[in-house]
Design a protein that fits this description.
The complex is a heterodimer of chains A (about 325) and B (about 170).
Chain A lengths: L2 H16 L13 H25 L18 E5 L10 E9 L4 E7 L9 E7 L14 E5 L2 E7 L4 E8 L2 E8 L5 H9 L7 E5 L1 E2 L5 E8 L7 E7 L3 E7 L9 E5 L2 E7 L8 E10 L2 E9 L8 H10 L1 E2 L13
Antiparallel strand pairs in A: 1-9, 2-3, 2-11, 3-4, 4-8, 5-6, 6-7, 7-8, 10-18, 11-12, 12-13, 13-17, 14-15, 15-16, 16-17
Chain B lengths: L4 H20 L2 H22 L5 H14 L2 H4 L23 H15 L2 H11 L5 H8 L3 H28 L1
The chains are: A alpha+beta (about 325), B mainly alpha (about 170).
């Protein structure tokens, strides 16, 4: 693609992305008098509430966990491959399984935010999946423990190392990590195919949807979240996260017998639809669900995503003692 | 020029929301960012309105809020970090090649480190000069150029990969 064509594609993509912005009315601000009134009310409440809090302790969340719809048993998936050495400061952040049977684990530096994009992803496919070819032209041909391997990337932030061994395809994808090829090779050479690690989840897809990706992710064991991507009449991404979310301004609904908010994004992109749903599951857990349907004739509405959220099986988030630690 | 805060909000909220959406790739996060920024701007408005360009100042507040947003965003999205095996996955059944390329660019933008993402949005969405980008991001012009250059290289790689897949089909 020529430079001018690519520049045009980029400008058009960003312009389309910007059209997904919510309507200006979605932003709510207090007026000057209202703001002052809120401050006064806040001060008054603090005077009244603070002594009570100091005396009896801060109240627990109002909503306890309860009957919140279909449940799910814990499902343990063995993860038999993984690196046994990581560069300094790197810890494990997520484990997952994709629809094609591949499994992956991600690692990031301690203190790096989950969404920073600065990740080292180790992934592998089992069962003689065919030749392991680079996504672009290989930068270099190397060896991993005597097996032919390739290094690929865009010459800047992305370095990918791929190789095959023991009827498995392996890939290490370093995104904005600053890791050199030599360090990737050392990680690759430490990979052991005989590990007994687990990916533990408690999510069951609803009828009519195919599981595309299931994962556990977070920064430490205390904030482990479960996620699932589903493909059916439309695509759904579900997250069960352990922390309350910032206040939002969607339409209030009841889902799984719990308070929830639903958003239908407008204007749609590509003639499709995009709906997002937040459900307070109680016990400091939230279900975050997003449905996307990019078909121009889409009739996707909030009720479709609510139906999925009502019928998906959700169990207790299994412990993830490995999260935030080095292997 | 909007003289009152209410006029500023009426005139600029839509623009700020679209800019924040291009930055975050997430309309809800964009809404949170713009809302937080406008609430803070409201408190400081008597001082902001005396500046040469209140519009540029508030725009920079949005950029800074985006760059510092990482802690609060927590685990609200899961799609971005899970791209490791995308190269092995079959292409999505989108109706046209153009949509494939745009999707690749969308995904590539979402994977960019924040400063690179901000730089590329400022350059290709807001049409800023490198000097303006440097001022907005609080870095040198050379660093701003480097951010844009590295972002473009990553995005080109994503788009090229789609090209290759489409050619192979």
């Amino acid at each position: 693609m020529k430079t001018e064509e690519f520049d045009g594609l980029l400008r058009e993509s960003l312009r389309l992305m910007a059209t997904r912005a919510p309507a200006a009315g979605a932003v709510r601000l207090a007026g000057g008098n209202q703001a002052r009134r809120r401050v006064l009310i806040g001060v008054a409440l603090a005077i009244v509430v603070l002594p009570v809090v100091l005396w009896v302790g801060w109240p627990r969340p109002v909503l306890p966990p309860g009957d919140t719809g279909p449940t799910a048993d814990r499902l343990d998936t063995p993860m038999t491959s993984g690196p046994t050495w990581l560069p300094p400061e790197f810890t494990e952040r997520s484990r997952g399984r994709k629809f094609d049977g591949s499994q992956y684990r991600t690692f990031a530096r301690t203190g790096e935010a989950p969404d920073s994009g600065q990740l080292l992803t180790f992934s592998y496919l089992l069962g003689d999946p065919g030749p392991n070819t680079p996504p672009g032209a290989p930068v270099a041909n190397v060896e991993v423990n005597g097996h032919p391997a390739w290094l690929s990337g865009d010459g800047t932030d992305v370095v990918i190392l791929g190789w095959s061994a023991d009827s498995r395809q392996y890939q290490l994808d370093a995104q904005s990590t600053g890791l050199a090829g030599g360090e990737l090779l050392r990680v690759a050479e430490s990979v052991s195919a005989g590990r007994s690690d687990l990916l533990s989840t408690a999510l069951v897809p609803p009828a009519g949807f195919e599981l595309r990706d299931i994962a556990v992710h977070g920064t430490t064991a205390a904030d482990a979240a479960m996620s699932m991507t589903l493909r059916g009449p439309f695509t759904v991404v579900l997250d069960v996260v352990p922390a309350p979310l910032p206040e939002r301004y969607g339409d209030p609904v009841t889902v799984r017998g719990r308070p929830a908010q639903v958003f239908s994004l407008a204007p749609p992109v590509f003639g499709g639809h995009d709906v997002k749903l937040f459900v307070d599951l109680g016990g400091d857990r939230w279900l975050v669900a997003r449905a996307q349907d990019e078909r121009s004739a889409s009739t996707l509405g909030p009720e479709d995503l609510i139906r999925v959220a009502e019928t998906v099986g959700i169990g207790d988030t299994p412990p993830a003692p490995w999260m935030g630690l080095r292997p | 020029m909007s003289s009152s805060f209410e006029e500023f909000v009426r005139d600029r909220t839509g623009v700020l929301l679209r800019y924040a959406t291009a930055l975050t790739c997430d309309p809800h996060q964009a809404q949170d960012i713009v809302q937080n920024v406008l609430l803070r701007a409201q408190q400081r408005w008597p001082r902001i309105v005396t500046l040469d360009s209140p519009v540029a100042y508030v725009n920079r507040m949005v950029t800074n809020e985006f760059l510092s947003w990482r802690r609060r965003r927590a685990a609200s999205d899961v799609m971005v970090p899970h791209g490791g095996m995308d190269a092995f996955s079959p292409p999505l059944d989108d109706p046209t090649d153009a949509v494939d390329e745009r999707q690749a660019v969308f995904a590539g933008i979402a994977r960019l480190p924040r400063k690179q993402r901000a730089a590329v949005v400022l350059r290709y969405y807001a049409n800023r000069s490198f000097a303006e980008i440097a001022s907005e991001l609080g870095c040198s012009e050379a660093t701003a150029r480097s951010h844009v250059s590295r972002a473009l290289a990553a995005l080109r790689a994503a788009a090229t990969q789609v090209d290759r897949v489409m050619e192979a089909l």
